[in-house]
Design goal:
heterodimer, A: 334 residues, alpha/beta, B: 260 residues, mainly alpha, 10 helices
Chain lengths: 334, 260
């Protein structure tokens, strides 16, 4: 019996060891490198292009950083920064301001895109070509508090009746399927990902209402942004500067040569669809920044107008100054 | 020849059934003109398996490692709890309800909390596998411990055997078949448990991550390719545990009854 027990024990240990060997085949890095963890807001996509270029081209490594790019868990990227598991995270203005209002000490240190590239997308047969067409139609929400006030503001501003827009839960299923099943007529997506996929890859006839075309009615805002904690800004300002300098270099490359950005992203997340990633990288290139040198800069007026909108919609209710929610001070000089 | 014969006899029926099901699936998608981005036909899934085989191998290694470590730890924890419960009925009454309560909290709900508390290393995903694995083992092992022949216990005790002797020579060997029944049940879904934990827990690699990324890239074929690999790994681990169980309990006759 003893021998048998030992055989089992050895077998168990062998399974465990072989598992460790199988899983721990990572590359060895210099111990002097500073470990940096950045949490994405979503599955890797072209919004994150600069980070993937900087990682792939060794810009981070050259700056002495060993950067780990992690996808988010349901507690969210910001929570991981606050918990100290990561130094940087991708977030968006509509998360930063309400979170700060609740006392979460995060600060936006760069915007990945110079303007909001979100759109409402709908199949062409629904006849939604301008905001007021949404009256009497169904909008599929993903549960964000900003959706209803924003859609209603768009519709009202275009002369439609905002109270005639119906709202239904879109869930996490593929939007194309939801459209086909007539579960809803319009959803809110990123132009650079979902719209390209539906319109350019699946060749589905769709119409879009781009938020950036209606800035007379609704505010612009920065999405996504890179955030860190107030504590890291205080304790490790040099790390923040080094990270942003390298990241900015990555985004500048993405602006100049979208193909490089697509290749870097495909190398970091090879499960992605190459056709989609390449088309998306070309689409987004002019949206990362108005000029390569100014990548990441945030305009105070954009933050203020968006903050005012969130306060009118009662999404931000406490007295937290918008000026403390973002900073350009750690970006490389243009 | 005997081996070949056995393989054909055992493998034949499930493989035939699988082939028929795949054929029906492929035909239905083609005839009913189902959008392949909704449900990919088997031929596209096979293509995806081949096209992303390098990536899939890396992810599978991660998932397999998490599963193996979690399964071993979970089984040991399950047996340890069962042994503890077996010591006295007081402990049993104290521990059992708590175990059941713990089991009603889905590991999936715990995963985000685990990631926040344990960080982005391997720990959160292995803990999820352990949580999934230990319960069936603990229940099966507790039952097996309780069912050990009391006459044998008395015999060893009357011969001057210590508590440890009793455990080593009577209780453990007597309970081993029951314990392995529990491990087999756990093994069957431990891979899926690890993959689900990867989808939730900020993983850097793993089949769960492969599936999420494929989904977000609208690649239904790759999603199913990931599922296929999970199924194959599950079958592999289940078979391995079954073989291990036979090796560990050679005194039992493991003949499979089959109609001639």
């Amino acid at each position: 019996m003893t021998r048998r027990c030992r055989t089992i024990a050895i077998a168990l240990v062998l399974i465990g060891v072989s598992a460790l060997v199988a899983g721990c085949g990572g590359t060895q890095r210099s111990a002097a490198d500073q470990k940096v963890t950045v949490v994405l807001d979503y599955t890797p996509n072209t919004n994150h292009a600069g980070v993937y270029v900087a990682e792939h081209d060794g810009v981070y490594a050259k700056a002495g950083m060993d950067v780990d790019i992690v996808e988010p868990d349901p507690s969210g990227a910001v929570a991981q920064v606050v918990a100290g598991n990561a130094q940087f995270a991708f977030s968006y203005a509509e998360e930063v301001l309400p979170r700060r209002a609740q006392g979460t000490p995060i600060v936006s240190i760069a915007t990945a895109l110079r303007t909001n590239t979100s759109s409402l997308v709908s199949p062409i047969d629904r006849g939604i070509t301008r905001p007021r067409d949404l009256a009497g139609k169904t909008y599929g929400t993903f549960g964000g508090p900003i959706e209803e006030p924003l859609i209603k503001a768009l519709v009202a501003c275009d002369g439609g009746d905002p109270d005639r827009v119906k709202f239904t839960e879109a869930g996490t299923a593929d939007y194309s399927v939801g459209f086909r099943k007539n579960a809803y007529d319009a959803v809110w997506v990123f132009d650079g990902w979902d719209v390209i996929r539906m319109r350019d890859i699946d060749k589905t006839p769709v119409t879009t209402i781009a938020f950036r075309d209606h800035l007379d009615c609704i505010p612009d805002w920065y999405t996504p942004v890179i955030v860190t904690s107030e504590k890291i800004l205080r304790d490790k300002p040099d790390l923040v500067r080094a990270f942003l300098a390298a990241t900015a270099e990555g985004y500048r490359t993405a602006i100049r040569t979208p193909q490089t950005a697509a290749d870097a992203l495909m190398s970091g997340a090879p499960e992605s669809d190459r056709t989609l990633v390449e088309a998306s990288a070309r689409f987004l290139a002019p949206f990362y920044a108005s000029s390569p040198a100014t990548w990441g800069r945030q305009d105070a007026a954009v933050w203020e107008r968006f903050d005012a909108f969130l306060r009118r919609a009662k999404i931000v209710t406490t007295n937290s100054p918008v000026s403390a929610a973002f900073t350009n001070d750690y970006l490389p000089a243009p | 020849m005997d081996v070949l014969h056995t393989v054909i006899r055992r493998g034949g029926p499930p493989i035939t059934l699988l082939a028929v099901l795949l054929g029906v699936w492929e035909a239905w998608i083609r005839l009913a003109d189902v959008d392949p981005s909704v449900l990919a036909p088997p031929s596209r899934v096979a293509r995806a398996l081949v096209d992303t085989s390098g990536t899939l191998t890396d992810h599978a290694a991660t998932t397999l490692a998490e599963t193996a470590i979690g399964l071993v730890i979970g089984a040991l924890v399950g047996v340890a709890i069962a042994a503890l419960v077996n010591v006295s009925s007081h402990i049993r009454r104290a521990v059992e309800p708590l175990l059941v309560v713990l089991q009603t909290v889905p590991a999936i709900v715990l995963a985000p909390v685990l990631v926040l508390a344990l960080g982005f290393g391997w720990a959160p995903r292995i803990v999820v596998v352990v949580l999934i694995v230990f319960f069936p083992v603990a229940i099966a092992a507790a039952g097996a411990f309780a069912a050990v022949d009391p006459d044998r216990l008395d015999l060893v005790r009357s011969l001057g055997g210590s508590r440890w002797d009793v455990l080593r020579h009577v209780t453990l060997p007597g309970a081993l078949p029951g314990i392995f029944d529990g491990v087999r049940i756990s093994a069957a879904y431990s891979v899926a448990g690890a993959a689900i934990a990867e989808q939730i827990g900020g993983a850097r690699s793993g089949l769960g991550l492969y599936i999420v990324r494929s989904q977000r890239s609208f690649r239904a074929d790759q999603v199913l390719a990931g599922v296929v690999v999970i199924a194959v790994l599950s079958l592999g681990i289940y078979t391995l545990v079954t073989i291990l169980a036979r090796r560990a309990t050679p005194w039992l006759s493991h003949t499979t009854k089959e109609p001639a």
